[in-house]
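can u do me a favor
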């Protein structure tokens, strides 16, 4: 057998043969023509003897570069080396699309010129905190760095476990409103906040991404999935009936009457425990909204200006819901007031509860609010 008949890249000195500079050799499977570079002791692809190296965070083609077979790209974002491969057409006039091949896991046959589509890098956008029972939350996946067009792709959202593994009926679960779309909303049903001693049942959420059946044969790898996030749903927020005004005084933050009265002694304010449930609503005045970038509600006195993160009271800034829309005096204009839903889920109402309200922009500008015992 001569080196011209070799089924693999010839190397070394085959018996009775020798290479000359730029001796040609045709790969028996891909039919690509190579030339021998005597100085570098390696084969060069005839169609592109000057392959280039790129180092950037995006596909070099997106930066205006014309790509050639053998070009290399160091993906600074994924920390991966890729080689550009455009297979030799199997017949004259055939259009072949090139693609970047991972140097660590190419997963493709250079013979099959049609298997060039890829799913691409999958990125998951998902909330992991402030997810409440009965409230709608959004999850989405994207493929921002290229890959096959979306019409070739199927999506399947998975929540595990679903329903929750409890020994009573009906078993609470997670409603996936658009299970086969790249973006969906989910509702963790009331009852999915499940405790086993001091451990809460977690729900794992991810999205399967795969090639549609009719296009699967054109993909290097036809199935993939996003990363997984773990969700610990919080107890359902009961729509509060009580609301109070949060005002800006010359001495600091203050609490004024709303649907229920508020009293004060200096910079210390008192309100009654919620009439129903464990939540009440605080509506900041325009002055508070304009003068303070954020407010923190905490059960410990941040005397030194440092807020104890473990003792922050649950608060969500949102539009008022439920009964407040009926009793708030300005809701007649069709715009429900926005404010803070304060949830005291772990508070014993048999004793007074002291809450410190701190301005995030002015930590020394704060007030004390006592929720009196029932």
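np, heres the sequence
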């Amino acid at each position: 057998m001569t080196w011209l008949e070799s089924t693999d890249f010839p190397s070394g000195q085959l018996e009775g043969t020798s290479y000359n500079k730029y001796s040609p050799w045709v790969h028996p499977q891909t039919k690509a023509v190579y030339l021998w570079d005597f100085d570098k002791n390696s084969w060069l692809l005839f169609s592109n003897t000057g392959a280039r190296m790129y180092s950037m965070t995006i596909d070099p083609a997106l930066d205006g570069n014309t790509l050639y077979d053998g070009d290399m790209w160091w993906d600074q974002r994924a920390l991966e080396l890729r080689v550009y491969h455009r297979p030799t057409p199997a017949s004259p006039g055939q259009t072949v699309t090139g693609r970047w091949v991972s140097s660590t896991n190419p997963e493709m046959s250079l013979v099959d010129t049609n298997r060039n589509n890829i799913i691409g890098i999958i990125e998951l956008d998902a909330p992991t905190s402030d997810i409440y029972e009965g409230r709608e939350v959004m999850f989405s996946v994207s493929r921002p760095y290229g890959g096959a067009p979306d019409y070739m792709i199927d999506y399947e959202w998975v929540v595990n476990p679903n329903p929750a593994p409890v020994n009573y009926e009906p078993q609470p679960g997670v409603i996936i409103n658009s299970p086969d779309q790249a973006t969906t909303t989910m509702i963790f049903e009331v009852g999915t906040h499940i405790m086993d001693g001091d451990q809460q049942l977690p729900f794992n959420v991810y999205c399967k991404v795969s090639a549609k059946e009719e296009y699967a044969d054109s993909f290097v790898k036809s199935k993939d999935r996003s990363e997984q996030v773990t969700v610990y749903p919080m107890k359902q927020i009961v729509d509060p009936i009580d609301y109070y005004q949060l005002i800006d005084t010359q001495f600091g933050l203050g609490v004024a009457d709303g649907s229920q009265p508020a009293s004060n002694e200096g910079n210390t304010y008192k309100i009654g425990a919620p009439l129903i449930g464990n939540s009440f609503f605080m509506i900041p005045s325009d002055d508070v909204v304009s003068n303070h970038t954020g407010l923190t509600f905490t059960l410990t006195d941040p005397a030194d200006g440092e807020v104890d993160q473990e003792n922050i009271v649950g608060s969500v800034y949102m539009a008022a819901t439920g009964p407040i829309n009926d009793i708030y005096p300005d809701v007649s204009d069709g715009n429900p007031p926005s404010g803070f839903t304060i949830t005291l889920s772990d508070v014993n109402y048999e004793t007074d509860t002291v809450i410190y309200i701190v301005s995030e922009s002015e930590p020394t500008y704060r007030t004390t609010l006592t929720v009196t015992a029932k």
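The mean pLDDT is 80. hope that helps!!
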